[in-house]
């Protein structure tokens, strides 16, 4: 039996998750997939290209792409979709390998982002990220299952079920990777799996833990996806597939279309590849200049621009329904969410709301609203950062997840395809 479009989209999503274990892998994968459909790779040190068609550049764990139509009119702007490539994880410290007095070899790690610590216990963990070699080359690496954080047995913590699990990130969250092997260095394993001669070829590294278990489907009809990094690769993949579809049937004229996938959202975005840094503004201004716009023309392009900040949100949890607003009940499987907050933790305003409604209507997809319970402040996104830096209309949206910031989050396949369709409609001018 042939697969329907929703299932095909979900299978592609699962492959994308499996092939994007770190922000660096995700950025390179997006770039490669766009090159495969005709986008030209842009090096930042080379003269900037804004010829008709697609262009893509990678900066560390961020990837930026822009599609220039055949005609860019005087009243054109940028239509931007923003997302992020990073997720909470444990990050390897400079002292990557430590040994206890009892002979246990452990990984030296620190917490990156707002993790659900307990979800990482009793899972086989791999390492993924990038290495910089002694000759200055970047090498992406992903090891096999190498470590685990074993939970204390209930016999040694009798009150854990009634009193709750108490974890100290310095004492309790260091993964075990060997025993009885003094002097062992996990960088030997990393170097081997990266195809290097030995660890002495590694000048520096940025490595995070990932669950070794890959994405999977479950539920009555396999409608749910279980995997890490769905916050926020669900948005990255939705935007990527929308842009791939657009490249096959591009608009003849109109706005310049931009995909901005940032790194470091989970830790505040204040980096050269984060939303609080200059990377998106660099892309927009250099594109405007390459189109022949002077300072006034660039300002007009920006004034006519808009941004859809796409980041995963919270579905109503069936076991904790009281944690959600009693009058606004978004549930996964019923379409993407418009995220609203009176204190502007999300950038959505009335103009952005109307923009998103037009996109969903044009795509023929249902959509929902999300607001927080008043007694439970919400998080934030790249949306407020983007609108503050650039002064453009920005709206916050996302698909609903359960177990957000867990090592293994949960989504619904119908939402994934619906989000991609809505983003495609926005880029096409809805």
Layout of secondary structure:
Elements: H1 5-18, H2 23-36, E1 40-41, E2 53-59, E3 62-68, E4 78-84, E5 89-99, E6 104-112, E7 125-133, E8 138-142, H3 160-163, E9 176-179, H4 186-193, E10 202-211, E11 216-218, E12 224-227, H5 230-248, E13 256-262, H6 279-290, H7 295-303, E14 306-310, E15 313-314, E16 337-339, H8 350-363, E17 368-370, H9 382-390, E18 393-398, E19 400-401, E20 409-412, H10 413-427
Parallel strand pairs: 1-2, 4-13, 4-14, 14-18, 15-19, 16-17
Antiparallel strand pairs: 2-3, 3-13, 5-6, 6-9, 7-8, 7-10, 11-12, 12-20, 16-18
Features of the shown structure:
430 residues; alpha/beta; nine-stranded mixed β-sheet; three-stranded antiparallel β-sheet; 10 helices; 20 strands; 27% helix; 26% strand
Report on the architecture of this protein.
With 430 residues, the protein is of the alpha/beta class. It is built from 10 helices and 20 strands. It has helices at residues 5-18, 23-36, 160-163, 186-193, 230-248, 279-290, 295-303, 350-363, 382-390, 413-427; strands spanning 40-41, 53-59, 62-68, 78-84, 89-99, 104-112, 125-133, 138-142, 176-179, 202-211, 216-218, 224-227, 256-262, 306-310, 313-314, 337-339, 368-370, 393-398, 400-401, 409-412. Strand 11 and strand 12 (224-227) form a beta hairpin. Helix 2 runs parallel beside helix 5 (230-248), helix 5 crosses helix 10 (413-427) and helix 8 packs across helix 10. The protein is globular, with a radius of gyration of 22 Å.
Quick recap:
It contains ten helices and 20 strands. The protein has about 425 residues and is α/β, with parallel strands linked by helices.
